[in-house]
Amino acid sequence: MEPASELDRIQQLLPDWLAASRRLTPTGKTAAYIPGLAAAPRDALGITILGGDGKTASFGDCALSFTLQSISKVFTLMLALMERGEDVVFSKVGMEPTGDDFNSMLKLELVEPGIPFNPLINAGAIVVSSMIPGNSPEEKTERILAFFRELAADPALDYNREVYRSESATAHRNRSLAYFLKDNRVLEDDVEEVLDVYFKHCAVEVTCSHLARMALVLAYDGNDPLTGRKLIPQRCVQIAKTFMITCGMYNASGEFAIRVGLPAKSGVSGGILTLVPGRYGIGVIGPSLNSKGNSVAGVHLLETISTELKWSMF
Ligand code: DON
């Protein structure tokens, strides 16, 4: 008989681990500032772990669909790096964590020359959206969707119209960030057109298995181990994973690096995409958020698994 693999073991342990983490969901809240996200089930929690051989361990509310939100920023960054190159991207966006909220305006005015500190805060991601090639917002969105569909291995991946409209109608803070960037000439394109691309990539609808599939490509340095195809240059993945460690969980990134020790990116829908280098792609959903905007139960679950299995990279 074949020895049980690590994923078999994880599969057996997931029900208890999930139950323990789910107890934290009443301590958080779903994101209320985007009306389309507020109604998500607060006590939901699900995880999918996908190995390079195609085996999975999965438990909980994995069938729940949700929108990528800020998780999309990792992938638009890689697309901009692939299409425009490092020099162009880093002439408009920095490489440093902020220690501020993801939608903060503070440092844009405090620090010269007014370029966003990094591509994972809202201001930085809006600038990155403007660098995606295309002659119109529609073309840029199509380019992004084609890239996401390839990584998730799902040609049907699309953005959720209701969440997109709901964010676009209420995005007063993102609009003010974008107009400020335009005034500083960091953003050159039409503000509303750039925001349209940004809201749409944030609203791309996925499940945990899509996240795990996208993360697996990062775990294998840009190669898809399930098809053997090279999808992203290794250097672009290296840059993205470095940002995931330093800024991926916003100003809880340091704590996450200490407690979990893996590159990760969260979104206000409650999704977390993370990976174990050379081994697994992981997708988590838990819509109840802590005060930093990260899934309260999702972070706890990842801490449990990483501690038990000694997954920390550090
Ligand atoms: O721009 C926004 O505010 C959202 N579309 C994305 C923010 C987000 O996911 C931050 N995550 N923790």
Structure commentary:
The protein has 314 residues and is an alpha+beta fold. It is built from 14 helices and nine strands. It folds into two domains: 6-65 and 206-306, 3-Layer(aba) Sandwich (Beta-lactamase); 70-202, Probable Glutaminase Ybgj, Chain: A, domain 2. Helix content is 48%, strand content 11%. The strands form three sheets. The chain has a five-stranded antiparallel beta sheet with strand order 2-1-9-8-7. Helix 3 runs antiparallel to helix 12 (234-247) and helix 12 (234-247) crosses helix 13. The mean pLDDT is 96. The structure holds 6-diazenyl-5-OXO-L-norleucine (DON). 6-diazenyl-5-OXO-L-norleucine binds next to loops.
Quick gist of this model?
With 314 residues, this protein is of the alpha+beta class.
Q: Report the C-alpha radius of gyration, rounded.
A: 18 Å
Count of spatially separate domains: 2
Helix content: 40-55%
At the fold tier of CATH, the topology name of the largest domain is Beta-lactamase
Termini distance? 34 Å
- Major beta sheet, specifics? 5 strands, antiparallel
Ligand names: 6-diazenyl-5-OXO-L-norleucine
**Level-2 CATH architecture of the largest domain:** 3-Layer(aba) Sandwich
Number of contiguous helices:
14
- Which structural class do you get from the secondary structure elements? alpha+beta
Overall mean pLDDT score?
96
The gross shape turns out to be globular
Please name the fourth-level CATH homologous superfamily of the largest domain.
Answer: DD-peptidase/beta-lactamase superfamily
Give the topology, please.
Blueprint (H helix, E strand, L loop, with lengths): L5 H17 L12 H4 L7 E6 L4 E5 L5 E2 L4 H13 L1 H7 L13 H5 L11 H9 L6 H16 L8 H10 L1 H12 L7 H12 L2 E2 L1 H12 L3 E2 L4 E2 L3 H14 L5 H7 L4 E3 L4 E6 L3 E6 L10 H14 L5
Antiparallel strand pairs: 1-2, 1-9, 3-4, 5-6, 7-8, 8-9
Helix pairs in contact: 1-14, 3-4, 3-12, 6-9, 6-10, 7-10, 8-10, 12-13
The chain binds 6-diazenyl-5-OXO-L-norleucine (DON).
The site of 6-diazenyl-5-OXO-L-norleucine has 13 residues, from loops.
